[in-house]
Amino acid sequence: MSSEMILASLSKVWHIIPIVIFIILFKKFMDSKGKKYKININEEHEKKGLTLELRTIEKYEKLGYKVIYDKTKDDEKAQGVDIVCNKDNQTFLIKCNNNSKPKSITAEDIKTFHKNAITYVKTNNLEEKDVKFRYVIHYEDALDKSARLILKDDYYNCRYVIV
Fold this sequence. Notes:
The protein is α/β, with parallel strands linked by helices. The chain is 52% helix and 17% strand.
């Protein structure tokens, strides 16, 4: 009796199954196309000299922040804080990572940035409650699953921003 009911139900909705499959495949195609577009746009920005750091600075300046940026890139700074933004009593410590390879940014990268940002806060006598950390990327899929988990954790006070 129950098998007859299942067959009767399926006979009424069988035509919906190909539509659902088509929608899923179309969504995957569009996501793939969007990823390629974002990578190409970032490459064009880089060719024009608009680095991820410069685009981030522009974004925060438009939001009304005072931006401090040190253009020198020594080894010590490479894992540290790239940009500091201030507005009212709010400070953002920002690390830009221009890596476009899928899943290339790991939890260790985020932890290293967090450690360096905490050191920056202590060195510059900032109030921890007034400081937020931002990890700027241009492509969401560059984040490894472990990095996504870290960025969702409130303990690290860090979020990612796509520019």
